[in-house]
RNase H type-1 domain-containing protein
Amino acid sequence: MPKSKADQAARDWVLKWKPAIDQEFTLNVDGSTKNNSKQVWGGGVICSNSVEWLGGFACRTMPTNIEEIEVKTIRIGIQWAWERAVRDHEVQSDAAEVYKWVKGLTSLSGMVNHGLFSQE
């Protein structure tokens, strides 16, 4: 049975940190939860293309599914970067479903319905 374009893109996606190609900085984020636990955390780091570490952040969020946790962590990370005047950055995440949403390979309607993204 042939794999979908979205499945192939997610499989081809390299799940490791690498410097951004077209931006000056890389914001790398990750969300995490334990099964049957209310412990839900996210965090990230910003590095320059010369691999200079500029800072990191940690956040706690409400327990939902892992994709929503990852998206919330990305949103918090982007806000955190902007507060530090880091605007030329690429966001990297290891969440394959979030990657597919961002690339337009699957619907964002679930995220819009949960208020994580604006419909505008």
